[in-house]
């Protein structure tokens, strides 16, 4: 599949036809190579499995069978994995550079929390600062296709920076837009929901 054949707003990914030596589905960066911060660590692990599997082709048939079984087992394990890592895998990767899921979670956490502490009614200076922060993200965010997609969303839906309630709801709606594209569960964007999630914690005191 070529870039022209991709749906608008979708990242360019590897296919068996375009990149026979790479696992299909990896997101490519502007340089045409797999983008580390645009893919999950599970995707990168698949690439290592494929390289090992390809390298086993020169081994004797018994070794090839063993290598194939090992690669197949690893592939099954990776397929079973989700973006929500188990505690053991999260601990094992605590010092690793962020993948696209970790970067996304950290960015959304920062933005939602910043909005939760934004003034109820923002001054002109604060509005300018917040607008600058949001509009700078498409030019600075490391995952280029994510940044481009967010940039288009900002143009189509200009941020409400007048105060806490408007900004919090706007960010929640932008986050849900991404969740819809990824097939994930959407968040409740009510004022009470957002305050509990990002500032006050639940009423039962479980986060105190």
TrEMBL record:
The protein's Enzyme Commission number: 1.8.3.2
Names of required cofactors: FAD
Chain segments carrying region Disordered: 1-28
Catalytic activity: 2 R'C(R)SH + O2 = R'C(R)S-S(R)CR' + H2O2
Superkingdom of source: Eukaryota
Subcellular location: Mitochondrion intermembrane space
Keyword Mitochondrion found: yes
Enzyme class: oxidoreductase
GO molecular function: flavin adenine dinucleotide binding; flavin-dependent sulfhydryl oxidase activity
Tagged with keyword Flavoprotein: yes
Domain ERV/ALR sulfhydryl oxidase: 96-198
GO cellular component, one term: mitochondrial intermembrane space
UniProt keywords, alphabetically: Disulfide bond, FAD, Flavoprotein, Mitochondrion, Oxidoreductase
Listed Pfam families: Evr1_Alr
The protein's name in its UniProt record: Sulfhydryl oxidase
